[in-house]
UniProtKB/TrEMBL annotation:
Pfam families tied to this protein: Inositol_P (PF00459)
InterPro entries linked: IMPase (IPR033942), Inositol_monoP_metal-BS (IPR020583), Inositol_monophosphatase-like (IPR000760), Inositol_monophosphatase_CS (IPR020550)
Descriptive protein name: Inositol-1-monophosphatase
Enzymatic reactions: a myo-inositol phosphate + H2O = myo-inositol + phosphate
Record's keyword terms, sorted: Hydrolase, Magnesium, Metal-binding
Enzyme class label: hydrolase
Needed cofactors: Mg(2+)
E.C. numbers: 3.1.3.25
Species: Yinghuangia aomiensis
Family: Belongs to the inositol monophosphatase superfamily.
Length: 262
């Protein structure tokens, strides 16, 4: 790993660890919804905002010229050519309910895409990280995506967006897909889903309508673990479907999702 990349990785790991610790220790017993975004189901808690602030302040103090894009509003162009893409809590609904599996997701990007991705899952004691061209790791040990299996033997993770319209369509696609696969998993965090592909806990993951911060770190981790990660079926609203899986299964799943109009 080059000096600058090593620096980015170290900072991302440290920021994710700090935010994950704060979110665990300071989670109020009576945590409520502070605001809603795209729909009443798209919730923000005071802790999302606090964690993003902590991460951005930590990184900005050490790299004042970088850009920022965060789920809770951080947005700065920067002039260094490096931009941090941050989801302070991916899986906010899990966090709100006290369910495990929410993550802190931090990526550093340049003009070619993701350089570094870190996904911290405090409730599982898991830290995933990857560096472009340098492989993917779970708690420091190298990981690989599962070898491809035929679609009818694939355990497939997915997620649902927040608007009723999108969910109606996503439910229709699942209804068609489910009889032809091993089973569906819905963990509640896109970052965790991509890490699950990266270490072979599921065979594949797909979802329409993710935001850049849901995807940035997990995509580096899944592709460095040997999975194919692609965005397909772009639509006028700017949404597309992210599909992650080992190569031959990836092709099979893409073909089915295209046929189903996912
Ligand atoms: C959400 C989670 C969820 C996915 C949604 C995302 P958030 O992110 O990743 O699994 O299905 O599409 O918006 O809102 O918890 O950061």
């Amino acid at each position: 790993i080059h000096g600058d990349t090593a620096d980015l990785l170290e900072l991302a790991l440290e920021a994710a660890r700090l935010a994950g610790g704060m979110l665990t220790v300071d989670r109020p017993a009576d945590l409520g919804v502070a605001a809603t975004k795209s729909s009443p189901t798209d919730v923000v808690t005071e802790m999302d905002t606090r964690a993003e602030k902590l991460i951005v302040e930590f990184l900005r103090a050490r790299r004042p010229h970088d850009g920022f894009l965060g789920e809770e509003g951080a947005g700065e162009a920067g002039e260094s050519g490096v931009r941090w893409v941050i989801d302070p809590i991916d899986g906010t609904v899990n966090y709100l309910y006290g369910l495990p599996g929410w993550c802190v997701s931090i990526a550093a990007e340049d003009e070619h895409g993701g350089i570094v991705g870190v996904v911290e899952v405090p409730t599982f004691g898991e830290t995933f990280h990857a560096v472009r061209g340098g492989g993917a790791f779970r708690n420091g040990a190298p990981i690989r995506a599962a070898a491809p299996v035929p679609l009818d033997r694939a355990l497939v993770a997915t997620g649902f967006g927040y608007t009723a319209e999108r969910r109606t369509r996503q439910a229709a696609v699942v209804a068609e897909l489910l009889p032809g696969i091993r089973d569906i998993r819905r963990f509640g965090s896109a970052a965790a889903d991509l890490c699950a592909v990266a270490c072979g806990w599921v065979n594949a993951y797909y979802e329409r309508g993710l935001n850049p911060w849901d995807l940035a770190a997990g995509a580096v981790i899944a592709s460095e673990a040997g999975a194919e990660v692609a965005q397909i079926r772009a639509e006028d609203d700017g949404s597309n479907v992210v599909v992650a899986a080992a190569a031959t299964l990836h092709g099979e799943l893409v073909a089915v999702l295209e046929r189903l109009g996912a």
